[in-house]
Amino acid sequence: PLLDQTQRHADAIRELLAWLRTSPDPDRARAETLASVLDRHRDERVVAFSEFAETIATLYRELAPRGEVAMISHRGGRVAGGVVSRDELLDRFSRPPARIPVGERIRLLLSTDVLSEGVNLQSASVVVHLDLAWNPARLEQRVGRLRRLGAARAEVAVYLCAPPGPAERMLRMESRLRAKLDAAGEMVGASDAVMPSEITARPRAAAALREERISGILRSWRDELPTVVVPASSDP
């Protein structure tokens, strides 16, 4: 019975891996969303923030072939030509396009929250929140990097990528953040402009489908498990 149970387990894992290789990739869906934002704001510079360096690195690999894409985290900066210092990257991002060689221009800057405080990114006019921070002040700080004196445009466009459906249902992050912003607005008149009224980028359907499919495969394996009785050992 134990051998049969192990074989069923192995079969379920093989089925799961085979399905994952052909299923929609949430990272690619998020990269496509960022590409659509770039296409919508063709003459503007975009900063996309995430709390996680892995998210930034993954999206950089997906979007780097488009050109004019850079990333920065606590490990440093990276452009098409390789590793660059933080100061050099920010200098390239801030200079007017006419004053920088075509091959060195940056339209999309992917960043962890290492740039959410203490820097000026007023050459950009579009912010994308790739994830939701627990504290709405963090979202305000991200947008505040662009909303500076001498900003490229009078208004800053803000986009928000929703978390995967299962995570949102479990944590209710969006509703919690909006509740915190509402409370801050009532107490001190804080603005909720850091979050768009509607979430434009929603790679939720693919994520929800993945969760349901994975759960179904594992559930079928679990439901079919035989009962294995292991005799007690007489050894001390």
In short:
The protein has helices spanning 2-22, 26-40, 53-63, 86-94, 136-144, 165-171, 173-188, 204-223, and strands at 46-50, 69-73, 76-79, 82-84, 108-112, 126-129, 157-160. The protein has 236 residues and is an alpha/beta fold.
Biggest sheet overview: 7 strands, mixed
Strand arrangement in the largest pleated sheet: 4-3-2-5-1-6-7
Our Rg estimate from Cα atoms comes to: 23 Å
Which stretches are low in confidence, meaning pLDDT under 50 for 5 or more residues running? 166-171, 197-206
Distance between the termini: 26 Å
Order of helices and strands: HHEHEEEHEEHEHHH
Share of helix among residues? 40-55%
Average of the residue pLDDT scores: 77
Please, how many helices? 8
Report strand %.
5-15%
- Given the C-alpha coordinates, what overall shape results? elongated
* Subunit arrangement of the protein: single chain
Structural class: alpha/beta
How many strands appear in the DSSP assignment? 7
Structural account:
The chain is of the alpha/beta class. The chain is built from 8 helices and 7 strands; from the N terminus they run ααβαβββαββαβααα. It has a 7-stranded mixed β-sheet with strand order 4-3-2-5-1-6-7, with helices on both faces. A hairpin with a 2-residue loop joins strand 3 (76-79) and strand 4. The longest helix has 21 residues, at 2-22. It is elongated and about 70 Å long.
